Amino acid sequence: MPGFLHIAFDPIYAHPLPEGHRFPMLKYELIPEQLLHEGTIQPENLIQPQSCPDEIVLLTHTAEYVSKLKGQTLSAKEQRHIGFPQSPGLTRREWVIVQGTIDCCLAALESGVALNVAGGTHHAFADRGEGFCLLNDFAVAANYLLQQKMAEKILIIDLDVHQGNGTASIFRNNPAVYTFSMHGAHNYPFHKEESDLDIGLPDGINDDKYQEYLQNTLPYLMESVKPDFVFYLSGVDILSTDKFGKLNISMNGCLERDRYVFETVKHFAVPCAVAMGGGYSEDIRVITQAHCNTFRLAKDIYGLD
């Protein structure tokens, strides 16, 4: 019997954002709408997460930073680094996204894979936010799994076009979490942190060369790290159409990237939680299509209902 495809989604993901940031965030509503419309998923596939308890957030983020977020006392400079003005709605959104990723972890332990429509907030550090990221959902979820002894060795596969600098910093001295980031070498953040493995890609890289880097790396990591849980950040800002990506990856190249990750992780029989990460093409239909491909592939490759 096939398993069940779990997808974390809550309408709050899209709504509390400032007016100027709502266009790229429309994808959080359009992805589940498209998947439902085409019949790839049914309403019962959607998990509606609650707000993550503070004690779980505090496994990763400092008490001072959490207090600032909850109390709306971030300085103007701190808000500029994040890129959003603070608001109670935005703070609640982050707490819900983090819980969505934790819910995906629990679901993936049962069915092999689960996906968060949002998440991938890899620029958030333990004590501060950056790059539109307030909390680091993968870091919080990874520390939760370790604390609950649901995992002993975790691999984070970050294929967003931007380096996962916050994630690298948080786990710098934690041997239980191996961080792998393959990103644009000349893209944000311009001061990179040191992941366990960083691959900086040249501007304009094409499908074949991108896939070569990935195929030369991922099986080796699965064999050498020997993770018992994988996080996959499947940003679609690698597309040639992306406003900020600087790479030359086609829609099919992005799809084949996801296929290779899923097939490799599944081959090693390791559960996988997925978050969408970035995507900033001018045409929202391109962003939605690329993200929906990730969900379609997960369902097909894992044989889920």
Count of the separate structural domains: 1
The amount of helix comes to 40-55%
Count of DSSP E strands?
8
Strand order of the largest sheet: 2-1-3-8-7-4-5-6
Order of helices and strands: EHHEHHHHEHEHEEHHEHEH
Low-confidence stretches: none
Number of helices, where a helix is a run of at least 4 consecutive DSSP H or I residues: 12
Q: Report the radius of gyration as a whole number of Å.
A: 17 Å
Q: What average pLDDT do the residues reach? A: 95
> Any guess at the CATH architecture?
3-Layer(aba) Sandwich
**Strand residues, percent:** 5-15%
Distance between the termini: 9 Å
Structural class by sheet pairing and helices:
alpha/beta
Say what the CATH topology is: Arginase, Chain A
| Tertiary shape | globular
CATH superfamily: Histone deacetylase domain
- Report the major sheet: 8 strands, parallel
- Class, according to the CATH hierarchy? Alpha Beta
Topology, element by element:
Layout: E1 6-8, H1 22-25, H2 27-38, E2 46-47, H3 54-57, H4 63-71, H5 76-82, H6 88-111, E3 113-116, H7 137-147, E4 154-158, H8 165-170, E5 177-184, E6 197-201, H9 207-215, H10 218-225, E7 229-233, H11 251-267, E8 272-275, H12 284-302
Parallel strand pairs: 1-2, 1-3, 3-8, 4-5, 4-7, 5-6, 7-8
Helix pairs in contact: 2-12, 6-7, 9-11, 11-12
General description of the model:
Residues 24-283 form the Histone deacetylase domain. It comes from Terrimonas ginsenosidimutans. Keywords: Hydrolase. This protein is α/β, with parallel strands linked by helices and 305 residues long. It has a single domain (6-302), classed as Histone deacetylase domain (Arginase, Chain A, 3-Layer(aba) Sandwich), CATH 3.40.800. 43% of the residues lie in helices and 12% in strands. It is built from twelve helices and eight strands. The chain has helices at residues 22-25, 27-38, 54-57, 63-71, 76-82, 88-111, 137-147, 165-170, 207-215, 218-225, 251-267, 284-302, and strands spanning 6-8, 46-47, 113-116, 154-158, 177-184, 197-201, 229-233, 272-275. The protein has an eight-stranded parallel beta sheet, sandwiched between helices. β7 (229-233), α11 (251-267) and β8 form a beta-alpha-beta unit. α6 packs across α7 and α9 (207-215) runs parallel beside α11. The protein is globular, with a radius of gyration of 17 Å. The N and C termini lie close together (9 Å). The mean pLDDT is 95.
